[in-house]
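Reviewer 2 asked us to include a model.

Predict the structure of this chain.
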Amino acid sequence: MALQVIYSSQATTPMSVADLEQILVDAREGNERRGVTGALVYVEGVFLQILEGPEAAVRGLMGSIAKDTRHSALKVVHEAEVDPPMFSTWKMAYLTPTPGEVAGWLGLQGTASLEQILAEVHQSPSQAPRVAEGILSALAG
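Predicted model (structure tokens):
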């Protein structure tokens, strides 16, 4: 079984394409070493990330992520064992959806603001697996 953690955080400064590309290069290299997979979503200055892998590796990575000054207000919204891992073929997938697309993953109205969407996920952590399924669907699409 793999540990799956889904968290959100706020970028401390606007991220350029080059900034995001560097994050992905670093994440993919580090995840390869750790045996971790997942997906990174960036929308309107907010990160939503899914990590999966051996519990010790994911918890260690979360410790490093929590210290990263490129973001703040880190909130774990979901943590569970998954078998098989949902993102096993991606060292770090990447999406930049619109808030409307994220709302659709949760079955919310497309007019929901990103703030409303995140509030829904934080208030109802049972919604988090729907986010993961939506990300998978978008990647396959």
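The beta strands are 2-11, 37-43, 46-53, 71-82, 93-95. The first strand starts at residue 2 and ends at 11. We have added this to the supplementary material.
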